[in-house]
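ok trying this again, last paste got cut off
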Amino acid sequence: MNPLKKLVNSSEKYFTGSGKFNRLKPLFDATKTFFFFPSPKTKHTPFVRDSLDLKRFMSFVLISLLPVLIFGIYNTGFQAGLARGESYTFFQAFWLGSRYVLPIIIVSYTVGFLWEILFAVIRKHKISEGFLVTGLLFPLTLPATIPLWQVAVGISFGVVIGKEVFGGTGRNFLNPALTGRAFLFFSYPVSMSGDVWVAAKSAVDGVSGATALSVLAPEGEKITSALSDSGFSLSNLFLGFVPGSIGETSALCCILGALFLIITKIANFRIIIGGIAGLIVTSLIFYLIPGGSDSWMNAGPLFHLCAGGFLFGISFMATDPVSAPGTNPGRWIFGFLIGFLTITIRVANPAFVEGTMLAILFMNVFAPMLDHIVVKYTASKRIPNV
């Protein structure tokens, strides 16, 4: 027998029944499940045969986030090199980036799991594997030089207010990671919005760098020209070699993650395609309106699609099965309105340059209503019983 498994099995008696550590049973179960097996199998009929459980579900999401995470770490070091006027190799940039990104992830997981354990012990229920995803998604929405105490405050707000006060995993109607980010955005805007602090070990801890969405063209110049002149060409935005939050810069990596989730049927493609369609249609409408060539109103669909965190949000946040609609028509509408609201906020309110976060949270609130409307409409089309 595996020595670790033997140790766990021999210790189980202390955490179950009348064992002296029985109050810590949720923590013991979570540790055992993490290392050895998924959720317990059903012992009585009816049996459900399915290869996908919560642990595998969350594991697939983590795998889909690996391209975004790896590139985010590298890009952090790469931007640091640009800020210092130096050129790093891939491994040098990755090493420097990891010194900024990994502490953020460690703090997110540590503080978040402490809250998960506390609520599980008090309520005497099992610790859900759902936080494995939230604990990684949240850091990827942050700039690399955010103070670690703000990371702790943000993830605490996301877990406690965004999820646990509603009963825990499966009962929250807001995405916990986005809830934590929204709290930080409105509480500490200097650390989160507009110009980001680019990691650079020099005379100061970092230098301020504009993100693509904060660029405005001089009067008489097109926004697309101003973006290219500032280093935000369409190719750079697509590949991700631009300043921004850790996980949002590379449209390519977000697309790869989305394709993996769609192929494995973890994410519902209707939300992703609906969101992209909503963004394209809305940005085209604004693009065809005369005037506004020096603002994001005239940027066009491709720049809107690749800039900011839209692809990251629609791929990994909006597809959360708990806070998204459960009906297929509702998912199409949900995704489309996220795209619509993202562009509307970007164009109508230049002071709030990134509309994806609020668009997703706003639609999370209305997701139950969308399902209710779809169900009522479907029921109204049925042939009445005679």
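PB: full thing came through this time. The two ends are 64 Å apart (CA to CA).
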